[in-house]
Amino acid sequence: MSFMSFMSFIKKNWKFFLLLVILSVFVGQFFNFSSSSAQVLEPKLLIKGESSEVSGTTNGSAVTPTVGSITGLVDVDGTGSVNFAPAQIGNGVFFRNCCTNASNAYYKFTGSQIGNIFNSNEGEISFYLKSQKSWAERKTGSFRVTFNVEDNPSAGNLFSFLVNHVSGRLIFSFKLGETGNHFYYVPQGQEDTLFGNGVTAKVRLAWDATTSKLYINDEATTRLSEVRTPATPAWSASSVFLLGADNYLTYGGYNSFDDIIDEFTVLGPVGSPSPSDTTSPSIPTGLSATAVSSSQI
């Protein structure tokens, strides 16, 4: 096409090109607004489920996450045990036995620093779960708890994820720093496909000020998206986070998770404040100044 032909084409279709310019400006402004209004998230915790993260598997052994400034302890009661097995990435961890606190095991973290990891206003939690039971086996037993976070143990769960069954339905229930719980009912007939024996499911939980979401296996659409009301945590030395069990008051963990947990990851807002640094600035007192001249201090 010659230059003159090109210019003639532009003149005949100038309205179309003007519309393209306007749309490009609008779309650019829209995405700039969207990106600036959403907080950037960063890793706050990663427990890979590898044996290298623990000093041992006996009661009282240290737990040092791959990412995170918090350390915990292995809690083993009676004939309970901490175990490692092949998972999605390397090995994962599972705990025996469900479901009382007499002969079970789990990882336990305590203290106000848990609030540095779990932000009730916005964040993401993801992990792989490799099932070690068929749906026929699972629906005859009790529920299992993947993780449980409590700012105040007497007030119950603040964050949690459970694998349960009710009235012949497989249910994933969760709570994300809010006042209510959410329940996802796996479609009947898909229980073994989604979480049957030997099947790995990737779970991603995401929340902001208004919405809690559940994604499974990196699907583009959510399995569940519901309105939420953020809680106002009161983190303290008695706050507790269990991986692999459900804390009950001061009695320890119940309903240990005997499927395999792998790559347990928590994301939170970049630079989110420490819960131990919430004191308002004070006004300095006792200050004085001496004038060195009539125009200087």
Query: What would the principal axes of the Cα set say about the shape?
Result: globular
Query: How many DSSP-defined strands?
Result: 18
Largest sheet: 8 strands, antiparallel
Element order: H for helix, E for strand? HHEEEEEEEHEEEEHEEEEEEE
The low-pLDDT segments are: 25-37, 274-285, 291-297
Number of helices: 4
Strand content: 25-35%
Supply Rg: 26 Å
Helix content: 10-25%
Write out the strand line-up for the largest beta sheet, numbering strands in chain order: 2-3-6-15-8-9-10-11
Report how far apart the termini are. 76 Å
Q: Kindly state the mean pLDDT as a whole number?
A: 86
Structural class: alpha+beta
Please specify the SSE layout and strand pairing.
Layout (H helix, E strand, L loop, with lengths): L2 H10 L1 H24 L3 E7 L14 E2 L8 E5 L4 E6 L4 E6 L8 E6 L12 E8 L4 H4 L5 E7 L8 E8 L2 E8 L5 E4 L5 H5 L4 E8 L3 E6 L7 E4 L12 E4 L2 E2 L5 E2 L5 E10 L28
Antiparallel strand pairs: 1-18, 2-3, 3-6, 4-5, 6-15, 7-12, 7-18, 8-9, 8-15, 9-10, 10-11, 12-13, 13-14, 16-17
Describe the structure in your own words.
The protein has 297 residues and is an alpha+beta fold. It is 14% helix and 35% strand. The protein has 4 helices and 18 strands. The strands form 4 sheets. Strands 2-3-6-15-8-9-10-11 form an 8-stranded antiparallel sheet, with no helix packed on it. A hairpin with a 7-residue loop joins strand 13 and strand 14. The longest helix has 24 residues. It is globular and about 85 Å long. It starts with a helix and ends in a 28-residue tail after the last strand. The C terminus is likely disordered.
